[in-house]
Amino acid sequence: MPKQAYTATEAARELGISVDTLRRWDREGRIRTKRDGANRRLVAFEEIERLRGGAEAHHSSARNRLRGTVTEVRVEGLLAQVELTVTDPARVVAVVTRDAVEELGLKPGMAATAVVKSTSVMVEA
What we know:
By secondary structure, this protein is α+β, with helices and mostly antiparallel strands. The protein is built from four helices and seven strands; from the N terminus they run E-H-H-E-E-H-E-E-E-H-E.
């Protein structure tokens, strides 16, 4: 049975967001919290489920969702490289597991979304 109340850190982890994002959402009224005797934020299990979209929803938090079209899928061993054209001429290339490609049924020409969640991306030449 899930906990009935989560600390801010636990709730952020469950929602896949940072504690700073949870605090901002609280200030903006996007998440309902209560305070304990020490004035710490507590988030009810039901509130976490509401934000996830219900118990059956996938919980994924990302600020950048890039809709595009799969242009290439190369599978080798346990890994696969998936290329999406998101906004011509931009493209996103991701390395994922072979199982993920098979489970999602990724094939060239199909619509897909690249979900980017990263604190930094570095490329040097």
